[in-house]
Amino acid sequence: MKEKYFILFIVLLFAGCASDETALPDTDTEEPSAMVPFSAAISNGSSARSEDDEEYLHKHFINDMTSGRQSRIRVINTVNYSIPDFSDASQYKEYAYIGDGTETYESNKVNFTPYNENGFDWNELRPTAASFIFEAACYPNQYEPFSEVNTDQTDIVNFLKADLLLAHHAQPLSQRYDLVKLTFHHVFAMVKVEIDLPVSANGGFPENAIQKVELADMQVGYTTDYTSAIDNDGARTVTASGQTADISMYCLKQGEPEGSGNNVTQHYEYCGIVPSQNIADRTLVRFTINSYTGNTIDGEFETEEKSYIYVPTTNIDLAQGHITTLQLGIDVDILEAILLTATVNDWTEAWTDMPLQPDEPSAEDDAASSGGD
Asked: Distance from first CA to last CA of the chain, Å, rounded?
């Protein structure tokens, strides 16, 4: 009797399959999109668009299509802890920023769209263990990877070209088809120099005296550690490497002279971006400053360009993701610049205790200029 019931069940099953009626999908169940959606925020950014005088901090992705400035990111789905190559088109997908600069970390909206309509498909991605692993890079104001930091940072576009943002994110398998939220980190260091010069022909300087400020002999190459395990949404470790070069800094501020009589000063601020490195027993900053000579020509005070240097008396660690701020001043009595204060904060500021000195020619330089051996 049991055998008869079993045979009857099989017959009914095949009868159902042979029916001319086609089963329709459940229209009440919405299939998730297979395209991978991305949002992103910059670590230590804010929820409001930066003011013009804070643009150098690069708190937000750039989306200024009127000038052609737009952030694009390259994203790679790494498998089994492979090392991403953002120059290999077979590995990455490129996405363009479509946000308005007001996104927050909690933002649940897509603010990147596939560039040239070529994005990731969830059904083509491969997980590692229990997660989909994404590594991403943003090269502000340029869209190709670079192996060395831009050395001409004298305007805001070139300055931001020296920045590098990286993101690492593990999306659990249970969140497949959900929005992927990337957190980008500044992985280089910034140096900010602030200086007040006395404006006077008597022991001071002419207006707009600073002609150039350089970070001296900086390593401009870098290496990224993709082999070490890091926390989800953490920052990869990036350190300086390779050859050295001088970096011309961006003039963030050249204020108007303030004060009266013998107490007139002019405020200057300069910034530069470099890979993380340690500075010890050598020049860090070099200034070219238009200076009074003490002589007059046809009744006008004569000036000439002089080089001043800032030499730290202790090691300075230019830390990844931080801004080292050196606040300098001039001792009018000895005509040397001295360090007043310094600070280090997350993509903000730093202090040390060292003087700025005139960059006097060495004995070797004197011999060379005079034709000596």
From this structure: 116
